[in-house]
Recover the amino acids of this structure.
């Protein structure tokens, strides 16, 4: 664990080991929440640099972060709209266009900033890139996003499940575009039993859309053979007539996750006001755009597992360190303002020293 001198990062990536950041290429998550370059000074940073200087300042840190990252790691850069599009171009240059994962929208101010000139800004940008897109390890979902109410049925083992159409509901996929995904299955609508081969009491079932035009299955025939026990057939009475359709029993099992949307709402991850309240409860004030703990926990949970190394190159109020510690990750945060280190970060972590 370390809180170091961030000013030296601009000199050379080779200094990182001297700062205690560990061997190069071992960081699973690098997080940057730099000054947004909107003017003024705060928390020891000059936030009114000429654009070319500010971009050079950011680029040096992106290069340093790339050297820190493991092949499986990701970098997350948090900005608002003022410079985000330019920084995304830098990310393309430093990490490669193919390394892009997502450009997330994070609701930071649900009420909207009413003093903004035209529209009441209410969001930040969170850009995510891979160190190596072929080896990256990243969960796009979390267990908390799964709603048990979406699984209303209960099987004989007491596990909740839902029924998903085996038919591909996207009309772009049809017998003309994907002919190998059209094949007959056989089912008994009275019992719900499904088979891949004909049998007594079973009728042939081909995939059709609701208007009875030909469709295709989501599974190949080989996959249907392997997982036929997960299938059930039912009689469906639609506006275009009666048909027999096949469904997959989709079980709500322990450890199941759901992919997150690319818009993260404040009720899920907190807001700037949430973060300020958290800091006030810790006896800290004076930060203009702190990040809420729920947001940092989500980022860390998505991109790391316990004992992975998390690095924050702009520690600020220390929320990344708090979240990483609570989640059992190893962490390093870098902050150039010694007063912030002494008066904010170390007390929040229950540490002493410099």
């Amino acid at each position: 664990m370390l809180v170091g001198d961030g000013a030296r990062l601009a000199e050379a990536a080779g200094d990182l080991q001297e700062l205690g950041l560990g061997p190069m290429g071992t960081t699973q998550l690098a997080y940057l929440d730099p000054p947004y370059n909107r003017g003024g000074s705060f928390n020891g940073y000059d936030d009114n640099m000429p654009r070319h200087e500010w971009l050079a300042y950011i680029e040096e840190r992106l290069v340093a972060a790339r050297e820190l990252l493991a092949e499986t790691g990701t970098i997350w850069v948090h900005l608002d709209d003022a410079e985000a599009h330019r920084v995304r171009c830098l990310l393309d240059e430093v990490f490669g266009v193919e390394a892009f994962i997502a450009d997330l929208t994070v609701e930071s101010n649900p009420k909207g900033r009413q003093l903004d000139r035209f529209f009441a800004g209410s969001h930040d940008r969170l850009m995510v890139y891979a160190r190596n897109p072929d080896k990256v390890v990243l969960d796009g979902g979390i267990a908390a996003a799964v709603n048990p109410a979406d699984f209303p049925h209960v099987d004989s083992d007491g596990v909740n499940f839902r029924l998903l159409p085996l038919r591909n509901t996207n009309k772009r996929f049809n017998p003309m575009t994907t002919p190998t995904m059209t094949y007959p299955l056989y089912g008994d609508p009275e019992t719900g039993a499904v088979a891949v081969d004909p049998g007594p009491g079973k009728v042939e079932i081909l995939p059709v859309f609701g208007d009875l035009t030909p469709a295709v299955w989501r599974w190949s025939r080989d996959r249907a053979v392997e997982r036929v026990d997960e299938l059930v057939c039912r009689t469906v009475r639609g506006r275009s007539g009666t048909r027999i359709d096949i469904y997959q029993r989709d079980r709500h099992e322990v450890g199941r996750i759901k992919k997150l949307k690319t818009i993260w709402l404040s009720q899920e991850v907190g807001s700037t006001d949430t973060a300020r309240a958290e800091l006030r409860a810790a006896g800290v004030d004076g930060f203009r755009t702190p990040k809420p703990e729920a947001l940092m926990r989500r980022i860390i949970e998505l991109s790391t597992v316990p004992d992975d190394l998390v690095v924050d190159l702009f520690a600020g109020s220390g929320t990344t360190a708090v979240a990483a510690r609570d989640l059992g990750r190893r962490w390093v945060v870098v902050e150039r303002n010694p007063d912030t280190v002494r008066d904010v970060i170390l007390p929040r972590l229950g540490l002493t020293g410099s």
